[in-house]
Here is the input.
Amino acid sequence: MSLFDKARVPIAAAAADGWGDVREGTEVVDRLMVSGGELTEVRLHYRTLGTLRRDASGAPLNAAMLLHGTGGSGEQFLQPGFTDAMFGQDQPLDLRRWCVLIPDGLGHGKSSKPSDGLYADFPAYGYSDMVNAQQLLLERLGLSTLRLILGISMGGMQTWMWAGQHPHRMQAAVAIACEPAPITGRNLWWRRLITRAIRNDPDWRAGRFSPPPRGYQATWPMFPLMTSTPRRLAEFSDPGQVIQTLDAMAAAAPDATDVLYALEASTDYDPRPLLAEIRAPLLAINFADDETNPPELHLLEAALPDAPTASAVLIPASEHTEGHQSLNHANLYAHHISAFLDQHDQPGAARV
Here is the structure.
């Protein structure tokens, strides 16, 4: 079965134009070594949009890979806040010209993850393992090179890794809402608050929680708290409303073991030794009100001299931004991506 013989599902932003089908597929890998041991029968799920074009030698011409954030899946890129500004006519990833691959990262979505049954027996994995799994998926799909890698949050961090580890596999890269430096400070604190609440729960049972751990449910709202802004949270002025919202967040929290693994996967993240190896133009997009990547720490500016092909844009805080969650609103930054791709002669620059 080829890359484009998978099941199709229309996306709302593009279905009316007839070019918005989403094709889904899964590659199964017999054995995959990760930092915590060996995985067998590993599922690597993905979605594709658009039509792949190849040159006379069979090399792909117009492939882009989008990488999602922590605890998410490829569905993040199929929501109106992203699709409406990115995939339409003359938008950055105009699907008349681009073929877009959207993997579910290892441990996420419909790819193999702890809650499938192994729970705490699932070997620990890191961002390096996730990048290796993405590379394996590309090989399975016959995508030797990419015109673009674009990642948000965790996916943006993995974009920095891709650019340094595989400098000749892409022609351009865009890293959104992340820093090319290890996770520290408040970003590390809130992660460890949640993972400690999971591991220290008296009903741990190797991750097989029933019911979900109370400490995890109590600390899970740290995730939306850290990824939003005071402006967005100002509407919560009634204590009863706050309690009701916290209870709803706790009830809707994703599987605790999946979250534990996903948050601890960032432990191996440090792209700084790789920055000098980057060859492709790379655009870093951050948000001035992002509490998880506060610009006042100047981590990005400190790294840019070591990555001479990289440039940066900081989106100012406004009534339209939502801190880290601004990454879900591509209308805030799509024009920067278009200008970047136009400058570096990407297929999105062509006008038809």
Summary: Residues 185-199 form the longest helix (15 residues). DSSP finds twelve helices and nine strands in the chain. The two ends are 31 Å apart (CA to CA). Confidence is low (pLDDT under 50) at residues 1-19, 348-352.
